[in-house]
Amino acid sequence: MKTYLLPVGLLISGAAQAQTLPAVEPPAHYRWFAGVATGLQLYETISRPGPIRYLGKVGLTPFFVSGGYQLTPRLAVQAEFSQRDPADRNVSSSGYSPDGQLLESTDRRREYDAAVPLLARYRLTRPQQAFHIDGLLGISILYHVYRQEIILSADGVPYSHYLIDETAWNKYLTGGLGAGLTVRQRVDVGLNLVINQNLETVRRTIEHFAYYSIKPSLTLSARYFFIRRPVQRGAF
After folding, report:
1. Which of 24, 36, 110, 163 is the most exposed place for a label (fewest CB within 10 A)?
2. Count: domains in the chain
């Protein structure tokens, strides 16, 4: 009988110890996050309202929003949104010609820009470190609107009409680095520096060293992580 009492006693002791150990929660590596940022984003724009191609520059500031998902402890994907929507400009002037005609001019302008960078964020340092360096790479999309209409009239009769409409979609290769600090378990602050290269002018940039077409973006950001907990048994 003694040969059976020892294993039974070990089983009972092990079961009692297992009941007293706290349940170990798996690490929360896969997390949604949302963020806000402030800074400046610059883009080179290309429009074709006619046979002429127009090149311009757009600066978006001061606030941006973002959201993303942490795929692995090192890799995350994110989308940002920023826009510039100044008030429409309407300028009118009038005067008289030497022969007494009433001359009037009207200048109307509409501007709007919205950018959506779609980026992958890869952790270059150890994921557990509070201070970290991330590599950023992806595609940015910019919706650019510039519309100007000028109407000249004499004695109320229009005699000249000038219209330019530079509405266009622009796509960019975006890449750079981000340095951040985890200040709490779910809060991360960082400084991000990326460059934006319009995909239509990549060849010009390489062949003619036209680096002026590469535009930088610098933002100071804060992200909040929503930890995805595993579903407990019996939970709905």
Report:
1. 24
2. 1
